[in-house]
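PROTOCOL LOG
Step 1. Enter all chains and additional molecules of the complex.
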Amino acid sequence: MTGIVRIGVEIHCQLTGLNSKLFCKCRGDYRNDLPNRNVCPICTGQPGTMPLLNNKAIDYSCMIALALGCTIPSEMGFYRKNYFYPDLPKNYQITQYDSGGIGSVGSNGKLEFGKEYARIRRIQLEEDPGRLIYEGGDMDTSFYTLVDYNRAGTALVEIVTEPDFKDAATVRAFLNKLTSILEHLGVCNTKLEGSVRCDANISIDNGKRVEIKNVGSFREVEKALNFEIIRQESLSSRNIEIKSETRHWDNERKVTKQSRAKEEEQDYKYFLEPDIPIVLLDKSYLNSIQQTMPELPDKRRTRFVEEYHLSDHVSQVLINNKEMADFFESAVRIYSSPKEIANWLVSDLMSYIGVSKTDETSLTDLKIGPRHIAELAKLVDENSISRHTAKSMLNRILRTGEMPSQLVGQFDSSKIIDEKILTKAIEDTFDSERAAVIDASSNPSVINFLLGKVLKLTKGRADPQIALSLIMDKLNKN
Ligand code: ZN
Ligand code: MN
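Step 2. Run joint prediction.
Step 3. Record the structure below.
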């Protein structure tokens, strides 16, 4: 029997849109560097250095807080969260903390997704630690561990929800919506490895909470939660107590494993960071941020329905993936046939890429761009090519990047697709094969005989699928 499942999530998203780290001038993009090259005295915590807060990170974190309907305090502060771990060169993380102190950038928000919503408990701006590399294994099995501080000090926004989710699929839907918002705000490229990380906490029947960490991708979050729900239900059905603990997701074996006992909040000995002044977030500043905010997914979906007359469903599918929505609008600007173009994207192109996932092919990896789809739609609208030919063309363009217009004539040119020519050949066949035409109503296999005759008449050049459907049409009319 399934008990009451309550799941909350904690998301760390990197502000990849920033040029520099949160408190120093090292590059924000650390991904292509050799280890420990993107570092300086500040982000490695050398004595006597002072952090200098990145203003753009304040703008970005306020944007996220506003987009998630949070309350933003008039003053926000930074705290030292003290713990000793090799990926943390200062032995404390500069973060925010709001239990009674000076607030973090946002609290008490709400995010709607489909017909559901989740409450946002708080949002805070903080620095990312470095990275540990377990040589020759994982945390338990490697012979030695290396540390790379290139990432240390890059800006993160932590988003914590209330335990409002009842199952893993709902968490996934929430994460997809959140990703789309972050992409639309332009603050985080969610497709970069490790740019959005999700921890979860889960309890059953108001029992003890178990934290799940180390989950690599959104798809893995869903698997980890489903595993954990079954594990906890199995324990409680045998009256075994569920312990409050932190468990790591083992991506290889697809199980959660117990890890070191988690520090309690008081162990971190939070105190106000003395080297960073209190940040004032007054009304005029927040108004200016609000005014420069890009269009968000919900508004964009409504606009797609009104401006392009797309269905709510198709609009939603496009907007779930900002790249796809941008691709759509670029193609429509080249050739204004929104429904046809949306159809190509939703029913054909999407099967070639991962939709709303952080770990799959991106549209920009494909050789096909808005110009291609616009031209393809135009050729179909003008009856220059059949939809069937267009689909085969798409397949080739995905591999070669050729323009559809270049392919007309040479692509499948041996086949006759012109309905007028085909109809004439079919009429001639029907005239000469009257007995077969009469038989066809009671014996469907005769249809193939008629098709064979049409192919013979056109010296094998008739497009068989189009010819067949025209034959069927004609038989139905007879
Ligand atoms: Zn630095
Ligand atoms: Mn954090």
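Step 4. Note key features.
The chain has three domains: 5-289, 295-410, 419-477.
The longest strand covers residues 116-127.
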